[in-house]
Specification:
Helix 3 (133-139) packs across helix 4 (144-151). With 357 residues, this protein is of the alpha+beta class. A hairpin with a 6-residue loop joins strand 1 and strand 2. The protein has 8 helices and 16 strands.
């Protein structure tokens, strides 16, 4: 959840630990041809105290009580700041479960995940609690350390956007901290629009025409003998083909839509070419200058654009005897659309969001 995590059962969002398991105008807005420079006009966010946290991504918003009544202008300003900075942070908030869901609803329709762990609140089906992540390995006969080791086949494996194996990944993710360790447990985000703009012009043109297969369980190293998790993957497989360069539906920015956690391969090229291309793209999106790191406190809230970011859940707290309890709500999104106007294609699995559930 921290979106940091994905549950890989059906929650695969926050997945690595947490989910940390997505309007304002842009100089390229609406054209679908921009290079993703991230240059936006100030828009309705002018009335908010927005403090950028790094050069390319992330901003803290001060002076807003998310648990109180929020007028449309304030919500529009928050949305504008999020679209500009890709992830926005709020501190010392008093949100409860109901308040978090209602705040998320101001930005779209909250998703009700098909599968949650026992720690998630039964009376609030939109909320996933990240402490559930600790159940995943045990559910499939492994401790947490083995679970993570078998899922991560590279050092950059933990970076992800939520649920991109689905045809309709979440548009936005809202994560609230209830309990956090006194040190460690930070989450990091990267700006995919800036990553695209940072490519050379010939490589941007080449990437514009590529598509990639996103699949649940990519890179999983099966156990010798019976493997309940491998059987789960085979029985509950989810996969979609998305554009490598996605046109953002609100800003018109082009984003380098590559997800180390889910991408199986780039289609219509050889496996050797796919491996080298993915290595280049993943290194590009995780360049330190395109990232921001957030130190959580109880009451901290992060709202991010899942269409234009990847994030990295913390992996430095397993040895600490401190709880880390986070609550995530995701907002429904649409199938991605590429530069040529072609939408994504589902290969197997149901959409993430079912409005009739």
């Amino acid at each position: 959840m921290d979106t940091d995590s994905e549950t890989e059962t059906e929650t695969d969002t926050d997945s690595e630990t947490d989910t940390d398991t997505d309007s304002e105008t842009d100089t390229d807005t609406g054209t679908g041809t921009g290079t993703g420079t991230g240059t936006h006009t100030a828009g309705p966010a002018d009335g908010l105290d927005v403090r950028p946290a790094s050069g390319h991504i992330g901003a803290e918003i001060h002076g807003v009580d998310l648990a109180g009544p929020l007028d449309d202008r304030t919500v529009a300003g928050i949305r504008a700041a999020m679209l500009r900075w890709k992830v926005v942070f709020f501190r010392e908030q008093k949100l409860d479960h109901a308040g978090q869901i209602e705040f998320a609803r101001r930005f779209g329709e909250p998703i009700r995940p098909r599968s949650r762990g026992s720690v998630s609140p039964a009376d609030f089906p939109e909320i996933e609690t990240t402490a559930d992540r600790q159940e995943l390995g045990r559910k499939h006969g492994m401790d947490q350390a083995e679970w993570l080791e078998r899922r991560r086949h590279s050092t950059l494996r933990g970076w992800h956007a939520d649920h991109t194996a689905r045809i309709d990944p979440p548009a936005l993710t809202l994560l609230r901290a209830e309990r956090v360790p006194p040190y460690g447990g930070d989450t990091t985000w990267a700006n995919l629009a800036t990553a695209y703009a940072g490519l050379s012009e010939p490589v941007r043109r080449f990437a514009d025409g590529l598509r990639a297969e996103h699949r649940l369980g990519v890179g999983y190293l099966a156990r010798s003998g019976p493997d309940p998790y491998l059987r789960h993957l085979q029985e509950q497989q989810v996969a979609s083909v998305h554009p490598v360069v996605r046109v953002h539906p609100e800003t018109g920015e082009r984003v380098l839509y590559v997800n180390p956690y889910y991408v199986e391969n780039i289609v219509d090229v050889t496996r050797a070419e796919s491996r080298l291309l993915l290595e280049m793209f993943v290194e590009q999106i995780t360049r330190p200058e395109y990232t921001v790191r957030f130190r959580w406190e109880p009451g901290s809230v992060a709202l991010w654009d899942n269409r234009a970011t990847v994030h990295l859940a913390p992996n430095d707290t397993a040895h600490l005897d401190f709880p880390r309890v986070m609550h995530r709500v995701m907002v429904a999104g649409d199938p991605p659309v590429g530069v040529n106007g072609t939408p994504s294609k589902s290969l197997t699995g149901k959409p993430l969001h079912d409005p009739h559930r």
